[in-house]
Amino acid sequence: MLTETADPAAVLAARYGTAPPELRLRWNSVVETLLSHRSVRAYRADPLPEGTLETAIAAAQSAATSSNLQTWSVVAVQDPARKTRLAALAANQKQIVQAPLFLIWLADLSRLARVAEAQGLEAEGLHYLELLIVAIVDAALAAQNAVVAVESLGLGTVYIGAIRNDVTAVARELALPSHVMPLFGLCLGYPDETAPAAIKPRLALDAVLSREQYAAEGEGDAVAAYDAVFAAFQTSQGLPEERWSARAIGRVRTRAALHGRDKLREALNRLGFRLD
Amino acid sequence: MLTETADPAAVLAARYGTAPPELRLRWNSVVETLLSHRSVRAYRADPLPEGTLETAIAAAQSAATSSNLQTWSVVAVQDPARKTRLAALAANQKQIVQAPLFLIWLADLSRLARVAEAQGLEAEGLHYLELLIVAIVDAALAAQNAVVAVESLGLGTVYIGAIRNDVTAVARELALPSHVMPLFGLCLGYPDETAPAAIKPRLALDAVLSREQYAAEGEGDAVAAYDAVFAAFQTSQGLPEERWSARAIGRVRTRAALHGRDKLREALNRLGFRLD
């Protein structure tokens, strides 16, 4: 939904969690759609209007793809029973069941493997980590285009990385062939207005952008300022007050915090990726 | 540049390289921006208008990020000498020198490493392949939002994966700390209208989209049809007529075709990624 009337200063204030920062942006309806993103974790049951899935996928296919290899695919899941089984594999996130459409984005080298096999050719390159990275980037660029498209249509989305907790089981559920990695899920649906999602503030722009060479000099101050902004945001959402830095480190402090994804490399090996 | 008057059927015909396919899409200016993407490999020398870089990065930061970890950074390179050196590392692609702005997108775990260190905490999770994948996805989602933003402003872009040919040298040029991977470059500038880029056709929508479970039954026919579409596109662009399947397999047939990226895993190890 393009809300042409939104105030750029208000959007920026929400995005950076402060009084409007000293940023002079160029603004139009596309920029506004992008800046207004929020992840939606509560959905109405309403089905998606006809043509929504096709629009999302055509947008996804319009993204750049490395050497035009098109090393991604997507499975659209609408069957409630399958969504329930996938949710059980992904930390029981209720929005997977709630959203009318759950897309699983795949880093897919199997198409090239099949094309090579059909021609009786080798495809030695597929055995290298590089090609998995190509496929992951292809899939992510595609998915993000789909997100932007459906958000412009008034729908909400949320990525589900937790499908990587057990890629073996997800691959079995989706009948994936060898050389296909379930990368992330994406819920799509109408946001439940009774539980609206807010724009989440991010680190200051200068904390992620360097000029000419990597620079992290001001980072300590930027993180301290953001810790305060993030804690205030949490409070405003009725969530436990927490500093970003504490929360972020909690996600990576131990191997156990990875919820099974510490075994991702071995699981990918079993899915046919040698990762040389 | 939003060309509100573009004909959806014409855009779709270009995207799928046939008479307008049987797709009923939902259409607005955002969808049109997305569907109209083309990679631009010839740029005018004109500098970017003020605020363009900031708009791109604010859009990038507005993309979803796994667990809000924000594991990406970007270096903006404008210095002609540095662009020339980076081009030399990336298969001498002339558009890197030509475009007024070259962004290098980074999968960046170093920020979390610094935050943990400042707090005297462990960050064991950073040693796993999973966290590199988190950072790659974060960076790709962010970059794609930047692409959509600047395309809506009338600028062109092209991703440069060839910076992965020698990530060690790129990391040195950009003074990257440990735990940072140069993921891809992105040229930004005004398209040179004397060498206009065309929308490149893709595989049919059904070739990348499955319902409920992965299905590749119709793939052989889809690839054959696309081979013809792609060959016609090449001819229309004054390029050698070539089937897509032959070209794609050429990119992955041998280890040598990876142009150094067969050693990416070892290079990442040296950049501080254990990839457990």
List keywords for this structure.
homodimer, NADH Oxidase, 3 domains, 5 strands, 43% helix, globular
Structure summary:
Chain A has twelve helices and five strands.
What does this protein structure show overall?
The structure is a homodimer of 276-residue chains. Chain A is α+β, with helices and mostly antiparallel strands and 276 residues long. Chain A has 3 domains: 1-36, no CATH class; 38-197, 3-Layer(aba) Sandwich (NADH Oxidase), CATH 3.40.109; 199-261, no CATH class. The first copy, chain A, is built from 12 helices and 5 strands. Chain A has helices at residues 8-16, 29-35, 52-62, 80-89, 94-98, 110-118, 129-152, 167-173, 205-208, 219-236, 244-252, 264-270, and strands at 72-77, 101-108, 156-160, 180-189, 209-211. In chain A, helix 3 (52-62) packs across helix 7 (129-152). The longest helix of chain A has 24 residues, at 129-152. Chain A is globular and about 60 Å long. The model of chain A has no long low-confidence stretch (mean pLDDT 95). Chains A and B meet through helix 2, helix 3, strand 1, helix 6 and helix 7 of A and helix 2, helix 3, strand 1, helix 6 and helix 7 of B.
